[in-house]
Amino acid sequence: xxxxxxxxxxxxxxxxxxxxxxxxxxxxxxxxxxxxxxxxxxxxxxxxxxxxxxxxxxxxxxxxxxxxxxxxxxxxxxxxxxxxxxxxxxxxxxxxxxxxxxxxxxxxxxxxxxxxxxxxxxxxxxxxxxxxxxxxxxxxxxxxxxxxxxxxxxxxxxxxxxxxxxxxxxxxxxxxxxxxxxxxxxxxxxxxxxxxxxxxxxxxxxxxxxxxxxxxxxxxxxx
Length: 223
Description:
Elements: H1 3-24, E1 32-34, H2 46-52, H3 66-77, E2 79-81, E3 86-87, E4 98-104, E5 107-112, E6 117-122, H4 127-133, H5 138-142, E7 145-152, H6 157-160, H7 164-185, E8 189-190, H8 198-204, E9 211-220
Antiparallel strand pairs: 1-6, 2-3, 4-5, 4-7, 5-6, 7-9, 8-9
Helix pairs in contact: 2-7, 3-7
């Protein structure tokens, strides 16, 4: 076998072994994941979702699929008008100061609505630590996914000044309701969690000084 061919094979073997090692070690070979297309053609009636929505705190030990996560995030605050960049939830001045973070068993992820993708922020399962920040509420630790709504005041303060935080809370409410109703349509369940220590939650998510956690939304399959 020619020397160049031997070298090429050796390089391929090393790269493959490195990828396997990263996977086994619980790391990630990629820091950004493109989500499947959200299912936006549901025939589930809105009035039925409104009737069936309840706060649920007991979930099955079952991971959500990529399609379920994609559809949940799109419904919550995804792009509904590609041309203008408008989203499913109303936002003051179309400034969209709310970011959606996902706390899952494989790490902390940030949702990118424009590309329907998740960006890895931090590796490791942070659900127990997030539960501690949320006054030890068990549901935060046991849900397969915690969607955390984070406000970035730098995006909205230049226009709305002292009313910025108020508007962020209103927008977070719109997003949370969207997610809760879509969860019902997907045969899932959720619960809005507003009790948490902000400083502790902000530190866990490594947020900047202009960011703050507003809401935690555990989601999963109801027991």
